Amino acid sequence: MLCLSQVQAENASVHYRTIKVGTLTIFYREAGPKDAPVILLMHGYPTSSFMFRNLIPILSEKYHVIAPDMPGFGFSDAPAREDYAYTFDNIANTMQGFIDELALKRFALYIFDYGAPVGLRLAIHNPEKIIGIISQNGNAYEQGLLDWSHGLVKAYWEHATKENRDAVRSFFTIDGTNFQYHEGVSDKSLVSPDGIFQDQQLMDRPGNVEKQLDLLLDYRNNITLYPVFQQYFRDRKPPILAVWGNKDPYFGPAGAEGFKHDDPNTIVKFYDTGHFALETHAREIGEDILQFMAQLHV
Predict the structure, then answer these.
(1) Where are the alpha helices (DSSP H) in 46-187?
(2) Active-site residue, selected from the candidate residues 261, 275, 281, 297
(3) Distance from C-alpha of 53 to C-alpha of 232, rounded to nearest angstrom
(4) Up-side HSE of residue 127: CA atoms within 13 Å toward CB?
(5) CB of 9 within 8 A of CB of 40?
(6) Any catalytic annotation for residue 275?
(7) pLDDT at 4
């Protein structure tokens, strides 16, 4: 029988696992007591579950934390475009398979960036499983969309010509990745270079930019689904904690405030930082999540 200190050490350990979902191998990080309430962490672009490296130890003291890499990201399979449709619907289907394979019954959902449209699709199709939603700059409102969704990107959405596709390729360069991490951050020395380096190394894999261009094109369908997400908030009223970097260049504070208009069970917290708020405010966000989770009926 394990003694208390051994159990505590085991709960604090992060395990790096893989599981088959159909033909794909999905990588995920797992930590915390197996019998505790589950928090499913959904990463965004261009990162992976690595973005949660500072948050997982905070949450796993009390909760069972699971953080997968979506297909095409991190250490999960990134099949060829001919073999896998890089759309948000299809990625959500794969992540549904991930939930089913792990037999997750009930869980809180953390959504960020691309993880938001994927995670909200999961919430709509599994309403009985969702005990709460933590949205960290995970947008579901048109008023939250900032300048990136206009200009070159809007032109690409409206006319997916080769010229318009080529015009947005700069988003996937090291300059684009650095911008995502640093814009809006007051003290840039708090942003570790590890995530930027890993994200760009994976981005630069042969053929990966084309997959990301497919996903960027498909993002227009997420905006079409915003009213569906909002209806889910009104109908189901899940407890929501919106934790938001208020200087995010992609999703502004109005996106966080939007949740309150549709769901009275919403708490909004702003932090003086940019898009990747966990890089600078993991401790503060972690503590706010723990307080939020403690109030849920689990």
Answers:
(1) 56-59, 88-102, 115-125, 151-158, 162-167, 174-182
(2) 275
(3) 30
(4) 10
(5) no
(6) yes
(7) 44
Q: Give the separation between CA 279 and CA 215, rounded to whole angstroms.
A: 24
How far is residue 162's CA from residue 168's CA, in Å, rounded to a whole number?
A: 10
Tokens of 284: 């503060």
Mean pLDDT of 65-94: 98
**DSSP secondary structure code for residue 275 in this structure:** S
The rounded mean pLDDT for the chain is 95
0.70 exceeded by the pTM?
Answer: yes
Question: Which pLDDT band, with edges at 50, 70 and 90, does 147 fall under?
Answer: confident
CATH number at residue 115: 3.40.50.1820
DSSP characters over 108-130: EEEE-TTHHHHHHHHHHH-TTTE
Domain that holds residue 46: 4-294
CA 56 vs CA 32, 50, 171, 230: distances in Å: 9, 10, 29, 29
Q: Kindly report the CA angle at 280 between 275 and 286, in degrees rounded to 5? A: 95
156-172 pLDDT per residue, tens? 999 999 999 999 999 99
Which strands, in side-by-side order, build the sheet including 240-245? 15-21, 24-31, 64-68, 38-42, 107-111, 130-136, 240-245, 266-271
Counting the structural domains of the chain, the total is: 1
